[in-house]
């Protein structure tokens, strides 16, 4: 049952004027008991967690690859990427397919999350800058903190979290060390 749950093919203007409070749309998801968000324009689709082919000698956060309609798509375990333990797969575990810019153009990456929540519109005035300390993840991974119903949602900087250059460097380091961490 590898059905598409959602698709990110919306036409949303990305131009924002200074002082413009047009809400931006974010896909929210749970990971390790916390709520995170990704800009909806980066999200291509959400699929049910299926068979992931492991690749030897990769860092622990690179879970493997999947076949997505004939294309090989690397799958990143966000929990492990943030320095935690590998995600334990449950009934609600999903893979969010995200399109990022890399040196070779656009690239699709799969991101394992505990559960997808909803798409939220968060006005720019309700987004605070990332904290300089106190977060459980690297500060450069955080684009901002969105205030939603009196709680904070961590808005991820997809270009930093899923930096293909950094991931490739970490994979090379893992190979040179002779281990997969």
What layout of secondary structure does this protein have?
Elements: E1 4-7, E2 24-31, E3 34-39, E4 43-48, E5 62-68, E6 71-77, H1 78-81, E7 94-102, E8 105-113, E9 115-122, E10 127-128, E11 142-148, E12 151-156, H2 158-161, H3 164-177
Parallel strand pairs: 3-12, 6-8
Antiparallel strand pairs: 1-4, 2-3, 2-9, 4-7, 5-6, 7-8, 10-11, 11-12
Written overview of the protein:
It holds the Pfam family CheW. Residues 23-167 form the CheW-like domain. One of its GO terms (cellular component) is cytosol. This is Chemotaxis protein CheW. With 181 residues, this protein is mainly beta. The chain contains three helices and twelve strands. It has helices at 78-81, 158-161, 164-177; strands spanning 4-7, 24-31, 34-39, 43-48, 62-68, 71-77, 94-102, 105-113, 115-122, 127-128, 142-148, 151-156. The strands form two sheets. A six-stranded mixed beta sheet has the order 1-4-7-8-6-5. It is globular. The chain starts with a strand and ends with a helix.
Element pattern in H and E: EEEEEEHEEEEEEHH
Low-confidence stretches are 1-18
Largest sheet: 6 strands, mixed
CATH level-1 class: Mainly Beta
Q: How many beta-strand segments?
A: 12
Q: How is the largest sheet built, in terms of strand order?
A: 1-4-7-8-6-5
What percent of residues adopt helix (DSSP H or I)?
10-25%
Radius of gyration from CA coordinates: 16 Å
Overall body shape = globular
Provide the domain count. Answer: 1
CATH superfamily: CheA-289, Domain 4
Fill in the CATH topology: OB fold (Dihydrolipoamide Acetyltransferase, E2P)
Structural class: mainly beta
Oligomer: single chain
Strand content is 35-45%
**Average pLDDT taken over every residue:** 81
Q: What separation lies between the terminal Cα atoms?
A: 32 Å
- Tally the helices: 3
By CATH, the architecture is named Beta Barrel
């Amino acid at each position: 049952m590898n059905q598409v749950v959602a698709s990110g093919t919306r036409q949303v203007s990305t131009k924002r004027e200074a002082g413009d409070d047009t809400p931006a749309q974010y896909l929210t998801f749970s990971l390790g008991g916390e709520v995170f968000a990704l800009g909806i324009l980066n999200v291509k689709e959400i699929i049910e967690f299926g068979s992931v082919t492991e690749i030897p000698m990769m860092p622990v956060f690179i879970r493997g690859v999947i076949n997505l309609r004939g294309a090989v798509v690397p799958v990143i375990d966000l929990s492990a990427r943030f320095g935690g333990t590998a995600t334990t797969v449950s009934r609600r575990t999903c893979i969010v397919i995200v399109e990022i810019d890399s040196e070779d153009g656009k690239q699709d990456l799969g991101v394992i999350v505990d559960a997808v929540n909803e798409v939220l519109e968060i006005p720019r005035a309700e987004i605070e800058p990332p904290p300089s300390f106190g977060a459980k993840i690297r500060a450069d991974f955080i684009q901002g903190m969105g205030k939603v119903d009196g709680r904070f949602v961590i808005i991820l900087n997809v270009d930093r979290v899923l930096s293909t250059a950094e991931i490739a460097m970490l994979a090379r380091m893992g190979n040179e060390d002779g281990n997969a961490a």
